[in-house]
Design a protein that fits this description.
Elements: E1 25-28, E2 47-51, E3 54-57, E4 66-69, E5 75-78, E6 88-91, E7 101-103, H1 131-147, E8 150-154, H2 162-173, E9 179-183, H3 184-196, E10 198-199, E11 202-203, H4 216-224, H5 230-237, H6 243-250, E12 254-257, H7 273-284, E13 289-293, H8 296-304, E14 309-312, E15 315-318, E16 320-325, H9 328-335, E17 342-346, H10 349-360
Parallel strand pairs: 8-9, 8-13, 9-12, 13-16, 16-17
Antiparallel strand pairs: 1-6, 2-3, 2-7, 4-5, 4-6, 10-11, 14-15
């Protein structure tokens, strides 16, 4: 099975009423961080704005932002907190083009298909068959390794098991990872495993709880904080079997966003939520595929700031999102955001990663 990017169908602006609609209206920001009344909020779909008689595609999108028109004619999505006085923000809340703003919901042929009114197992659950999803993902990742930008959003469960940890390390070192978004816990327990062979004091292979094992991750945090960076810590301790060490070796960026419950935290963990969001956004805005494993809040956050489409070599393509968790509720939370291409897989992520690694490497 050869992977093929779904074809995008551009709106027919010249052959419809759209050509007679007026230019979109912009109003200037007066107070920092405050959008003008009746601002237009971005959706998950490709959006067009009519400027000087021409329909312009918003090429870098995200949900729930506002769109700024720059003097050079470029469009930019901004979060409210980044709005500056003088920014020209599009206003209008119709989506059919009548206000010069057009939401193209069916660009990839995603309109609701015909089917049976009643059918069993239409949702995604532990009873769902995922064989086809895996096969599609294998082909997608092979394609994206050469042509895309693969972002992984990882919960600490990834490093709680020896096999899943080694599988993730293998994927990093074989080019299937372009960026990792995670929290303090992933890196802390990854490094704990490298130094003590435990995660939260349990052996990552036998699951045996070791005497005083609950100190292990705290010792890692304390020792790491003697160094200015994780790169220095990895070098000082000669750490090799580790996600963090693999990212250091390969140059894969890892953004660690802090939380109010963090221990330590490790060096380079971003405690300021907005700085963390900005750092994550540098990678989500490039993403062509995002895979979220066993971390509900991180997955939702990353998903909300990830565009549902990218413009590459002048062509519009969808961004593929995968949500993997043993909890049906968790995987469907990301799908409920309405993204164009979210695939939910209900399984433990240890099995998931081992399947992926064995097929690709």
């Amino acid at each position: 099975m050869r992977f093929k990017i779904p074809e995008y169908k551009r709106p027919c602006f010249g052959d419809s009423a759209l050509k007679n609609f007026p230019d979109a209206i912009v109003r200037q920001v007066v107070r920092p961080g405050v959008a003008p009344a009746n601002f237009h909020a971005t959706t998950i779909f490709p959006e067009y704005f009519k400027v000087n008689g021409e329909w312009l595609l918003l090429e870098q999108s995200r949900m729930d932002g506002v769109v700024v028109l720059h003097d050079n004619g470029k469009l930019e999505v901004k979060e409210f907190r980044r709005l500056d006085p003088g920014d020209k923000v599009f206003v209008g809340r119709t989506e059919d083009g009548s206000d010069g703003i057009y939401i193209h919901a069916d660009g990839f042929g995603q309109a609701e298909c015909e089917g049976e009114t009643f059918a069993f197992r239409t949702g995604r659950s532990r009873e769902t068959s995922y064989s086809r999803d895996y096969d599609r993902l294998y082909e997608l990742l092979r394609h994206e390794k050469e042509h895309g930008y693969i972002v992984w959003v990882l919960g600490p469960a990834v490093v709680f098991d020896s096999d899943s940890k080694q599988a993730m390390i293998s994927l990093i070192e074989n080019g299937y990872v372009d960026a990792i978004l995670a929290g303090n816990a992933l890196a802390a327990h990854d490094l704990e495993g490298a130094l003590f062979q435990t995660a939260l004091g349990q052996d990552i292979y036998t699951q045996e709880s070791l005497r005083n094992g609950h100190y292990h991750h705290l010792d890692v945090l304390n020792q790491a904080r003697e160094h200015a960076s994780l790169t220095e810590f990895v070098a000082a301790k000669q750490i090799e079997s580790s996600l963090v060490a693999s990212c250091v070796r390969t140059g894969v960026p890892m953004v660690l966003a802090g939380s109010i419950r963090d221990d330590g935290p490790l060096p380079e963990v971003l405690a300021d939520a907005y700085k963390a969001q900005n750092a994550m956004r540098q990678h989500t805005r490039q993403a062509t595929t995002m895979i979220c494993l066993a971390t509900q809040l991180h997955s939702i956050a990353a998903g909300n700031m990830t565009p549902a489409y990218q413009v590459m070599d002048g062509k519009v393509r969808p961004v593929f999102l995968y949500s993997v968790d043993v909890s049906e509720f968790a995987v469907n939370k990301l799908k409920d955001r309405g993204s164009l291409e979210v695939t939910s897989i209900v399984t433990n992520i240890q099995d998931f990663l081992v399947h992926i690694q064995r097929e690709l490497v």
